[in-house]
């Protein structure tokens, strides 16, 4: 049977944040008893993304953030700045990184490599999205 849950990841400052444990905890019920399946996670925001990458050395996270800042600098003459100077920058970075991931499930667990983890890529300086209200990022997990 398909399973789906919407939940909120805690608010984070700008940067790459390892959220594997939060995702697994929120989805324990759906993962239980699944021998073989597919897990998708979709971020419901246009200024944050999701990716899978190195889960051990935190310098990977700072390097990824630095590289994205270099590729998509805030200093360009952006037109869409309604929510601040990081508005269009955040949207473009989300398009580059993506807002969803898909992982296999085996024996009730997400299948990740030894050094892989799920990242929330937060692109807003204010953290937690629109207006900096500190509400976190909503995501939808679907299991098939």
From TrEMBL:
<dbReference type="InterPro" id="IPR001602">
    <property type="entry name" value="UPF0047_YjbQ-like"/>
</dbReference>
<comment type="similarity">
    <text>Belongs to the UPF0047 family.</text>
</comment>
<dbReference type="InterPro" id="IPR035917">
    <property type="entry name" value="YjbQ-like_sf"/>
</dbReference>
<dbReference type="Pfam" id="PF01894">
    <property type="entry name" value="YjbQ"/>
</dbReference>
<protein>
    <submittedName>
        <fullName>Secondary thiamine-phosphate synthase enzyme</fullName>
    </submittedName>
</protein>
């Amino acid at each position: 049977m398909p399973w789906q849950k919407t939940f909120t990841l805690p608010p984070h400052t700008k940067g790459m944040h390892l959220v594997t444990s939060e995702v697994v905890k929120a989805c324990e019920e759906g993962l239980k008893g699944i021998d073989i399946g597919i897990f998708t996670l979709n971020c419901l925001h246009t200024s944050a993304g999701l990716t899978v990458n190195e889960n051990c050395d935190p310098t990977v996270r700072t390097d990824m953030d630095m590289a994205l800042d270099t590729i998509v600098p805030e200093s360009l003459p952006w037109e869409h700045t309604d929510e601040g100077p990081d508005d269009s920058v955040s949207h473009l970075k989300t398009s580059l990184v993506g807002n969803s991931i898909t992982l296999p499930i085996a024996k009730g667990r997400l299948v990740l490599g030894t050094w892989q983890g799920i990242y929330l890529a937060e692109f807003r300086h204010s953290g937690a999205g629109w207006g900096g209200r500190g509400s976190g990022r909503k995501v939808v997990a679907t299991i098939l």
